[in-house]
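User: My advisor asked me to double-check a structure prediction for Probable nicotinate-nucleotide adenylyltransferase before group meeting. I don't want to rely on an old file, so could you generate it fresh from this sequence?
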Amino acid sequence: MTAEKIHPRYLRMPHAERGMVVGLFGGSFNPPHQGHALVAEIAIRRLGLDQLWWMVTPGNPLKSRNHLAPLAERIALSEAIAPDPRIKVTAFEQALGMNYTADTLARIKAVNRQVHFIWIMGADSLNTFHKWQKWQTIAHTFPIAVIDRPGSTLSYLSAKMAKSFHYARVDEDDARVLWKKRAPAWTFIHGPRSALSSTQLRAGQ
Ligand SMILES: Nc1ncnc2c1ncn2[C@@H]1O[C@H](COP(=O)(O)OP(=O)(O)OP(=O)(O)O)[C@@H](O)[C@H]1O
Ligand SMILES: O=C(O)c1ccc[n+]([C@@H]2O[C@H](COP(=O)([O-])O)[C@@H](O)[C@H]2O)c1
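Assistant: Sure, here is a fresh prediction for Probable nicotinate-nucleotide adenylyltransferase from the sequence you gave:
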């Protein structure tokens, strides 16, 4: 399926008002599942978000695209599963020709100087974060909230990112004011967990 089948509203960066706190939740969503919806719900509540941009990536640079469903399909399934009107499903990275998060965040920052952003990811992503392009730049761009995930609970201690930015860790009791912190700043949020994964769903389990 090609970009022409994607409604143009998904190819524009969502609009946020000045002063808003906006979570950026990037993912392959191949397919999206209730674990993603739970992360979004926890992030909205614990971080006090006005919006959460559910950013469906054209393709994770570290993953093979062999079994990647078309972007239009991942967008439609994300819309169907996103539980809250504050969630804005988007795929504007496709239109910008970007799939490196560092580039995306630089662009978001450049055009939204008055908005407060927080990058959101699951605990498994924290484990591999140091393999992302310009990962230290990402950590210096926006605060980061890591949501616990079964199997990766200890990443907040063992991940390379966690060690490198140990000094910048914020207690989860202060998650609601994370947006006020100057990056680097990150927190690890515990709460209800889901063991679901897209891999499992693709395997039909
Ligand atoms: N069950 C879950 N609990 C917490 N975070 C999750 C969960 N599932 C996915 N995430 C997070 O959501 C984001 C998008 O994940 P992704 O779309 O790759 O899903 P996935 O289930 O990990 O997929 P796959 O199994 O194909 O790797 C990532 O930051 C990931 O860490
Ligand atoms: O920029 C990178 O090098 C990079 C490497 C791996 C993952 N990411 C981003 O991380 C988000 C989660 O990806 P995924 O495949 O784990 O759902 C998604 O927005 C990807 O574009 C980004």
